[in-house]
Design a protein that fits this description.
Number of strands of chain A: 14
CATH superfamily of the largest domain in chain A: S-adenosyl-l-methionine hydroxide adenosyltransferase, N-terminal
CATH topology of the largest domain in chain A: Rossmann fold
Strand order of the largest sheet of chain A: 2-1-3-5-4-6-7
Distance between the termini of chain A: 48 Å
Structural class of chain A: alpha+beta
Largest sheet of chain A: 7 strands, mixed
Number of domains of chain A: 2
Oligomer: homotrimer
Number of helices of chain A: 5
Strand content of chain A: 25-35%
Chain lengths: 265, 265, 265
């Protein structure tokens, strides 16, 4: 099975890749993971992959194309991990997921000299995916690579980053919940907020900013029947600090002493 | 076959559900019915399902996730009808379609205590669909439910509602055409309109509001080479009255006596 | 295999067609080529088909629905070419691709009298595609057609047209690159531009308009980390002239004598 993750959005480029895959591996089974990554947002794609790859059956191949460096000398990678295969440009996109699953080998895919310099998704990566899907081993695609471009999401204590803004306008962070905590102080850019935590969307009041544990089991800023994105205008990768505010509830929680400093706007 | 109907839009949540389904039922055949329902518009999803389920082969399973009540105590349903299976939160979404096809059994799906409280699509509903797809019976998913949340589209004589606004800006109603009628009087909110009826889009003049029989065989307000939505700004569920205007053409047609009262803007 | 190309965008109409296909040909394998053609833009769809059909395996059937004339007496066509089958309304959409591959037979699909007059995609074309997919021959769909609606992209020397504006805002033309040329003079409407040519997106400066060889191996106007569409607001089908500017580099290149006339804005 081949799962696609691209920034091709509303374009024919995804369809062209599927055609190419099927021309090589006629019965390839292709599933769309997500193809509306913000154009060229390697970071957002990396988070989507990290937080969703494990939903897929073992043996799945992830074909990931967010490729601002297409046509330059950036490597084209095929990475084997403990349970999956990842094919992508070497720009960090697959690093967090592959690292988490456990990398076992990394191949630098051979790029033919006559390849187009603007659409490696179709001309290099789709063909490589189809070749593996039709039974070839990963080593047949090129030579072992000595390095892989890393990508780390910022995390230092209770400071993390905005890793994703979803279709509903939810602002997704890489920070975990503090068990039992009902109120948090959040700092995002110049914005300081005192936010309630709810277990479900239904508990929130309309138009109220609040925190919730999202589908990746991390904290998300949401607005019921609205869009947190439109209220806060965050950027992908922007740092965010979210600390608990209930003194005593969690021994040593950083938030306690700050009560009263953060103001709800 | 599993057909998806969700409000996940441009998000990875649909891809995650597909991954989960395939992890349980490896060769599950998944078709997208429609995944751009307006966020949380149970009503719009209910209409799309009602007017399209019968296009699918008998035996198809509809996995329907528009779920503003996720994480609350609203039930998760699996409904068997004469020819299909429907899986959805118990909020009315599947009621009109299931009722029309003929409900034979309703199961309240067991929700594990450790389920996430924000993404039952992935954690409850996709798993239930995959379990059925891989051969389990509906009774294996939980216990028989005693009730199901109804949802009725408003219809009283020639007054119905706006059930859907489509990609082209067509305003779709649940009112049928009057055979042979060439002109209608329509009341939508404060707007009173005298509208011609055309059999095809090609007959209309550019930029003109008109009525046509749409794909669900009900009346739609359209604009040729334009968007009726942008002219009239209707809301889903808003009541609309559309009566025939040709006196004598249809015995007892309500429209006749009103000729001259409605003004075309 | 059936590949879809439509202007249905974010609508349930594509899902309904897939349901209908599967009701007739239960294991039909359906791939989305592209379903976000601008509403009713036959011209744009024709280009997408022309520049992508050959990516698909031989024997593929293209189901193409951009159909402003639905319900009129325009023919419904099934066209057999050397390696593919095309099903579409007779409005030029499939002409360039079918012509290029080599037309071997053209059938006018019989339209039942009780067909809807607004959704032939579901009621005529999807059924025809499914019938062929399940093994019937093209002749079973109707009678041989004597004519087919042509569609030609404008091209006269170095003057061509804007054939497509993609998801990234790239303005795609049907003009080829001049080998070795590093600078072009382009005229688009009232806009006269002196544009550098780069082999890769990475070479361009941020926010700079430039030319690149796109995925169809034709010239595209691009902006790095931006949208050429938003800078130039071109229309599909608009004529564009792009000539080389390096005197002597290419013997007889038209651009040389004009150096100095075109001004970069």
């Amino acid at each position: 099975m081949i799962a696609t993750l691209t920034d091709f959005g509303n374009s024919e480029y995804l369809g062209a890749m599927k055609g190419v895959i099927r021309s090589i591996s006629f019965d390839a089974d292709i599933i769309d993971l997500y193809n509306d990554v913000a154009p060229q947002s390697v970071r957002q794609a990396a988070w989507v992959l990290l937080s969703n790859y494990a939903c897929f059956p073992k043996g799945a191949l992830f074909l990931c194309i967010v490729d601002p460096g297409v046509g330059t000398d950036r490597k084209a990678l095929a990475v084997q991990t403990k349970s999956y295969t990842f094919i992508a440009p070497d720009n960090g996109l697959i690093y967090p997921a592959a690292q988490k699953d456990g990398i076992t080998s990394v191949i630098s895919i051979t790029i033919p000299k006559d390849a187009s310099r603007t659409f490696h998704g179709r001309d290099i990566f789709a063909k490589a995916a189809a070749k593996l899907d039709s039974g070839h081993g990963i080593a047949s695609l090129g030579k072992p690579a000595k390095t892989i471009q890393p990508l780390h999401f910022h995390k230092k204590g209770r400071e993390g980053e905005v890793v994703r803004i979803d279709h509903f306008g939810n602002i997704i962070t890489n920070l975990s919940c503090l068990p039992g905590e009902k109120r948090y102080a959040a700092t995002l850019g110049k914005e300081k907020m005192n936010l309630p935590f709810y277990a479900t969307y239904a508990e929130a009041k309309s138009d109220e900013l609040f925190l919730i544990e999202g589908s990746a089991r991390t904290l998300e800023i949401s607005v019921k029947s609205g869009s947190a994105k439109q209220k806060l205008h965050p950027k992908i990768g922007e740092h965010i600090r979210i600390i608990g505010m209930q003194r005593g509830n969690i021994p040593g929680a950083e938030g306690g002493v700050l009560r009263g400093v953060f103001l709800k706007k």
